[in-house]
Design brief:
single chain, alpha/beta, 39% helix, 3 domains
Length: 304
């Protein structure tokens, strides 16, 4: 026998009302919803304006039929990116649970160390897709601590990665389905932890990697980048030298590219703060110099 208190019934009624018309939701109210990502494509100004905005303020954010549509970016920035990098470092200090800032691809380029599959899993179909319902009944390594709905969405995201890998948008020789599965299920703990902290309506997790080396990146790094994008993360690659990296693997239909010149330098909160501080210092020195001059003049006058 179960009995719901008046407070519990009121809470459930409130949960049904909140968000129905105003698109305002309580924290974690959407955690049981199916995640569908919406790839935002636009100008560099669009990107900079929306990058650190909550998802519910972004275009195309929507909640309908038990599905949350989460808009996100997959972008390569070349050129004058110093200010953007400084802003991301500042953001990562405040929100290290959902913001990662890597100085190179090295940490994410490693091949799977744990390879449990000796053959094709019974829940992995012949056309390289996960049978999500069947897979959820099996041990799935590192995603088991996720909420049940997040486990389901994680597996659905792997299917989206597999679709891209097997399409014409993935340009070089393609990794095997086993490579994709073992990389993302057993060898991507950072991604899993960040996804665990993702409340769909608020700030999207962000992964920013600096690419200032003229080296070919690993296929495993690309698999992980695609997975983060499929999970609703903002994925950004920055290169002041404009070296080709992700361009060698993915078409522009998957990853947008922007080149920023010094004249078009991206607005930076950190650099703007520094400029304001420098102006205050200069103003302070100017006032101090004027006071010293006035004092000197007074001494001369008094001396006479």
């Amino acid at each position: 026998m179960k009995y719901k208190t008046n407070a519990q019934r009121a809470e459930e009624e409130l949960s049904g009302i909140i968000g129905a018309d105003k698109h305002i939701y309580k924290p974690w109210q959407l955690e049981d919803y199916t995640l569908e990502t919406v790839h935002l494509q636009g100008t560099i100004d669009d990107f900079m304006l929306l990058f650190d905005c909550a998802n519910y303020t972004r275009p195309k954010f929507e909640v309908a039929d038990d599905t949350v549509y989460a808009p996100n970016f997959f972008v390569k920035l070349n050129g004058a990116v110093e200010g953007f990098e400084l802003d991301v470092k500042a953001l990562s200090k405040r929100r290290g649970d959902i913001v990662a800032n890597y100085s190179s691809f090295q940490k994410m380029a490693t091949a799977p160390r744990h390879r449990p599959f000796k053959g094709r899993p019974e829940w992995f179909t012949e056309d390289d897709r996960i049978d999500v319902a069947a897979a959820l009944k099996k041990p799935l390594g590192n995603i088991r601590h996720l909420r049940p709905a997040y486990q389901k969405n994680y597996l659905m995201a792997i299917n989206r990665v597999l679709e891209i890998v097997n399409s014409d948008d993935f340009l070089p020789s393609k990794p095997t389905g086993r490579d994709v599965l073992e990389t993302l299920l057993f060898n991507s703990n950072k991604i899993i932890r960040m996804y665990h902290n993702f409340d769909y309506q608020y700030l999207a997790p962000k992964f920013v990697v600096t690419d200032n080396n003229s080296f070919t990146i690993s296929t495993y790094a690309v698999i992980r980048l695609l997975m983060m994008h499929a999970l609703g993360f903002d994925v950004v690659i920055v290169s002041k030298d404009g070296y080709a990296s992700i361009e060698n693997y993915l078409s522009e239909a998957i990853c947008d590219r922007h080149f920023v010149t010094e004249k078009e330098r991206v607005y930076s909160k950190v650099l703007e703060g520094r400029r304001k501080f420098q102006r205050k210092i200069k103003l302070g020195f100017g006032i101090a110099a004027a006071l010293l001059l006035l004092l000197a003049m007074l001494k001369i006058v008094i001396g006479f």
